[in-house]
Amino acid sequence: MSTTGDQPTSRNSLTRADQRDQSSAALAPTARHRAGQQHTASPAAESAPPPRLLRHPAEVPFFIFMVILNGIIVLAILRAAIVLPFLPDPLKSSGWAIAIRSALIGLLLLIPLLIVVRETQRAAVRGTAVALSPSQFPTLYQTAESFAATLGLRRRPDIFLANGNGTLNAFAAQATGHDYVVLANELFANLYNNNRDGLRFILGHEMGHIRLHHVSLWYQIAVAYSERIPLLGPTLSRLREYSCDRHGAYLAPQGATGLVLLASGRYTENDVNIDELVQQGRRLRGFWVGLAQLPRSHPFTVRRLERLYGIGLFGADSARPT
């Protein structure tokens, strides 16, 4: 596993690097073309590239590894619950055996618990957040509709504006029959009036999670146990974030300030020199940097920005302070 969190190292790493270069070459001309467009142009005028081109090349191989590991864990739990291999024979018919077996079987309740959490979370969002509609924040609603068409989503996600209690946050989720995105009001207030491209990037990023099935029940079940392993779970999460950053940047090629806001905080996103911040990201290398990133679910924000400029999805001619 790479200490950078960009992608795990394996004997196929060279092949993946080649794939990344090919993806970058395929994406860059389109991104540069789109970077010159006004953000009012509808992205639905053209379809997004297939997921394999906007997905980080290491995400699927690592996901497959995590699925296999998840299956091994489930089988190990079942075997341990039946055989109790770690318990001495004299105790296998005791109350201790019953308690341990019950605890092991209880671990398998994670999957039904996951379903309950998904459904109750959507219910809570519907009861505490404002749903966007053609008459409720219509501009952003139309942007979401356009993005969904561009990404070829089979159903339009609901968009909600929630009270983030001061946090800069957004997330995508799914419940039975519904995909949805929640935007925190602090994020919305900062970006909506003065920097809509930044908000478009964030919205596109979250829709990337939906397009790539990161919020689907089958996906979450497939890694329900392995994703909770320290270091491995965060690595998969970081790869997902890189993939969704590519979707956000494709849909909003001038939306770099959406990431700048996360790095520098509120009210600063239009004052940061993005060229200099990208250079800072290019210098973000070394053992300690990789070690610091290992437990994190998201890549370093400065690195995320640098990677998107590096593959040409954020246009070099984007307006920025000097």
Q: Can you describe this structure?
A:
With 322 residues, the protein is α+β, with helices and mostly antiparallel strands. It has one domain. The protein is 57% helix and 6% strand. It contains 14 helices and four strands. It has helices spanning 13-35, 51-54, 59-83, 95-107, 110-128, 138-151, 185-192, 196-211, 217-222, 232-251, 257-264, 274-282, 287-293, 301-310, and strands at 130-131, 158-162, 170-175, 178-184. Strands 1-2-4-3 form a four-stranded mixed β-sheet, sandwiched between helices. Helix 6 (138-151) packs across helix 8 (196-211), helix 11 runs antiparallel to helix 14 and helix 12 (274-282) packs across helix 14. It is globular, with a radius of gyration of 22 Å. The two termini are 39 Å apart.
- Name the structural class: alpha+beta
Beta-strand percent range: 5-15%
Would you tell me the overall average pLDDT?
83
Widest beta sheet: strand line-up: 1-2-4-3
Percent in helix: 55-70%
Distance between the termini: 39 Å
Q: Report the C-alpha radius of gyration, rounded.
A: 22 Å
Number of strands: 4
* Low-pLDDT windows of residues: 1-26, 28-45, 316-322
Question: What characteristic shape results from the CA principal axes?
Answer: globular
Query: What is the assembly state of the chains in this entry?
Result: single chain
> How many helices does DSSP assign?
14
How many domains? The number is: 1
Question: What about the largest sheet?
Answer: 4 strands, mixed
Order of helices and strands: HHHHHEHEEEHHHHHHHH
